Amino acid sequence: MTRAGLLCSILCCTTLALAGCGSHAATPADQPVAVQAGDNTVVLPADSPMLKQIRRERVALRELPTDEIVTPGKLEANPNRVSKVVLPVTGRVTAVLVKVGDAVKKDQPLLTIQSPDADAAMSAYLSARASEGQAEVALGKAQADADRASDLFEHNAVARKDVQAADSALAQAKAALEQARATREQSLRRLTVLGLSSNGFDQQVVVRAPLSGKVLELSVVPGEYRSDTSAAVMTIADLASVLVTAQVPESDIRLITAGERVEIALVAYPGEVFDGRVSRIADTVDPQTRTVKVQA
Question: Where are the alpha helices (DSSP H) in the chain?
Fold first, then answer.
């Protein structure tokens, strides 16, 4: 604001202050508001009551709403933070360690399963490890045979074809060892996925929480045998942040932009206002209601 504009504002405020005195006539004795103007400068006395009505602040940019849209909405869990927990193997559920409504942390045990697949995975790992050991022994023998054949050939004690046969056997032994190691690594990863150690049999599979959140649904009890590994046994949702979904009329959707601030009032919390940001605006219009889905 220019100094001329400031002068105009202060003079207007002075006029309003004088007019608000009612029938009592203002005099310099009871209201010292003498104003001296010159060179676009206003000087107020130190005891002037006008000083109490003046504030000085830095100029700042603020968002001012030009249009307001009020529409009903509903709270929803963020679908990107909802997990349907399924069993990794078939078997009998021996223990359920959580209840509906419990708060769980990521990787927290949820339930345990006694499964024949666990013993099969352990058996496959032990078999692969034994095959790797046999392959290492065979490679050592093939290496010794190849070295001996090469030495004999240098002394003209064997034919070249014997050296070639020994080298071929050595190459096959190396390939067999690589394959055995790959099989052992694969079986070990299977144990890791199931949360099992390589110490022995009779281990139970522990199902752990994939994320932190609340247990919303639970459909399994101890002692139950489950053979369907595609059916969810519980639902966990991270409710640290939720979505508010509203159906905005088609005629008002042009006034909403992604990232725009919204205010949410809930019946459960009267008198409180929660802040949010528009995260998604649907690309299509509902043909029945002529509204557009907006999430914040």
Answer: 3-19, 116-154, 160-194
